[in-house]
Amino acid sequence: MDPAKTDQQVRKIIHIDMDAFFASIEQRDFPEYRGKPLIVGGSARRGVVAAASYEARKYGIYSAMPTLTALHRYPDLIIVKPRFDVYKQVSGQIMQIFRSYTDLVEPLSLDEAYLDVTTNKYGMPSATLIAREIKDKIKEATMLTASAGVSVNKFLAKVASDMDKPDGLYVIKPEQAESFIGELPVSKFYGVGKVTAARMQKLGIHKGMDLKEKSKAELIKLFGKNGSFFHDICRGIDHRPVNPERIRKSFGKERTFENDLTSLEELNEVLRNISELVCRDLEKYGIRGKTLTVKVKYDDFKQITRCRTFPGFINNEELILNVSKEIMAVVFTPGSRIRLLGITLSNLEQAASIADSGDNKQLSFDF
Ligand SMILES: [Mg+2]
Fold this sequence. Notes:
By secondary structure, the chain is an alpha+beta fold. Among the domains are: 16-116 and 130-145, 3-Layer(aba) Sandwich (MutS, DNA mismatch repair protein, domain I), CATH 3.40.1170.60; 250-350, DNA polymerase, Y-family, little finger domain (Dna Ligase, domain 1, 2-Layer Sandwich). It contains 14 helices and twelve strands. The chain has helices spanning 21-29, 54-57, 67-73, 84-99, 127-142, 154-161, 177-183, 194-202, 208-212, 216-223, 226-233, 264-285, 317-331, 359-362; strands at residues 13-18, 38-41, 49-52, 78-80, 105-109, 112-116, 146-151, 169-171, 250-261, 289-298, 303-314, 338-348. A five-stranded mixed beta sheet has the order 5-6-1-7-8. A four-stranded antiparallel beta sheet has the order 9-12-10-11. Strands 3-2-4 form a three-stranded mixed beta sheet. The longest helix has 22 residues, at 264-285. The radius of gyration is 21 Å and the shape is globular. Magnesium ion binds at residues 17-18, 21, 111-112.
């Protein structure tokens, strides 16, 4: 692994992620939904899927997909409005379980967190055993299942939690890390979305081991600042600490396109989609903000951001969408090719109690 770290203690990191969180809560509370394709999300006309039950995923229905597309895939789909109060309450229960083992808990969202259990409140030597106990306690307290990944850093723990879903427990031991990543398809790398994965395939990069053959300079040239992150993670290197103090300062979403967008009409449609996702997060955490930023990246990777600050705090979707469209109308020039669009709300009214994953800042997620 990383030679610089060999003289230090190997860390024990757990990533816990609830299985189909919102959807599972709805199926728990409404027995008539159990075993059925269900989504939690916005209206059929313009909404997006916030969460899909495992039964819905069998039909190719996933989060961030327009509800309409989901309905095309399965017309009898049950569509449930989100009940964030309930999700937050359950989130509180699981976070409390995490903190009974360690204070080093870094939530990524309501249903996901990293835990550093290298030293823990019970003096337990086995992180695997802690993960199993946590899963059991979650089941007992909430009647819901979680998947856990156990490894030596955040990146590996996160990848591991996804390996055996639902109700999974997957361990990547220090000595397995390098060969594991070598065999891992790049599409499974956290931080590599569909678009980036497709680009990598074209470049002949299919697995971790292919990524490793590229120099840092090459990767930076190809993927911008993400390149150096890719360079490190394909070697199993990820020194990011589990940081319980990290406070989220903004809420934003961005979208990378498989094919560059060239018309204002298409761009506005994407803005609609992104504003809804941003507003859902704002609603989820009960947060409002004052500054709205629109980010545009062109096909040559040049990037511009434009922001507007409001006199008061806002979280209104219509307003966010309209102002984003106004900004877009000003920056748009016919003939330009746009590969990424993003909307962020910052200058928040209160410190969001939920930590920022940090990853969102350096990586552009395709969805
Ligand atoms: Mg989850």
